[in-house]
Write a structure and sequence with these properties.
globular; alpha/beta; single chain
Length: 207
């Protein structure tokens, strides 16, 4: 199987041009996230892709550090920020296991459509917990394929065999929520918005 960096590097340009598949779900998650942000927040986004979400949220916070496995994704994000004249988003190539901004803890860590792509989710969650200030928020949206038809899992397996899909962990919602709580978080919001959305939106506070 390809490394995460190589897989997403080869798809970065296509990814940047692809329309969001479920706009109502994306806008709902974005609106809910906005309600938790404040003007003085320092935010870390892991798995930022080409930076679309970070750039949309930039005007609501002090600074966003946007990170991704893929150097090509990061390059596109930097280009978009420059084109849009946004100066308070810093793009860095990094994994969820790297020490980003370790000198000062973050107020918020965001991970959208990422946790199910990690081979060691507990380790990543524990590391991200350590990057947050006490009481800081972890905001995520995660595909829970174990709640879906078995056909999806079979299709992904076949795509992986020919290099057209990365590692994917088939999570249950309960497994995801328990995994977040086990790393020292208190879940303060959890739901699927709209109800048919495959992504589980969770907001958790560091305790």
């Amino acid at each position: 199987m390809q490394s995460s960096e190589k897989f997403w590097d080869t798809r970065a340009e296509d990814y940047a041009q692809s329309p969001i598949k479920n706009l109502p779900a994306y806008h709902e998650a974005l609106a809910r996230t906005k309600s938790y942000l404040s003007a003085e927040d320092r935010v870390l986004e892991v798995g930022c892709g080409t930076g679309s979400t970070a750039l949309l949220l930039a005007g609501l916070v002090k600074h966003i550090t946007a990170t991704d496995f893929s150097s090509n994704m990061i390059a596109i994000g930097r280009r978009k920020a420059q084109e849009q004249g946004i100066t308070n988003v810093t793009f860095e190539q990094a994994t969820p296991f790297d020490d980003i901004g370790a000198q000062e803890p973050f107020d918020v860590v965001m991970a959208y459509n990422l946790l199910h792509l990690l081979e060691d989710m507990p380790k990543a969650l524990g590391h991200l917990h350590g990057l947050l200030k006490p009481g800081g928020l972890f905001i995520s949206k995660t595909v829970c394929l174990a709640e879906e038809s078995r056909l999806w899992r079979v299709l992904i397996f076949l795509m992986q065999r020919i290099g057209f899909a990365p590692f994917v962990n088939s999570l249950k919602v309960s497994e995801l929520e328990d995994g977040i709580a086990a790393q020292g978080f208190e879940i303060i919001e959890t739901g699927s918005y709209p109800s048919y959305s495959r992504g589980r939106y969770i907001v958790a506070r560091k305790i």
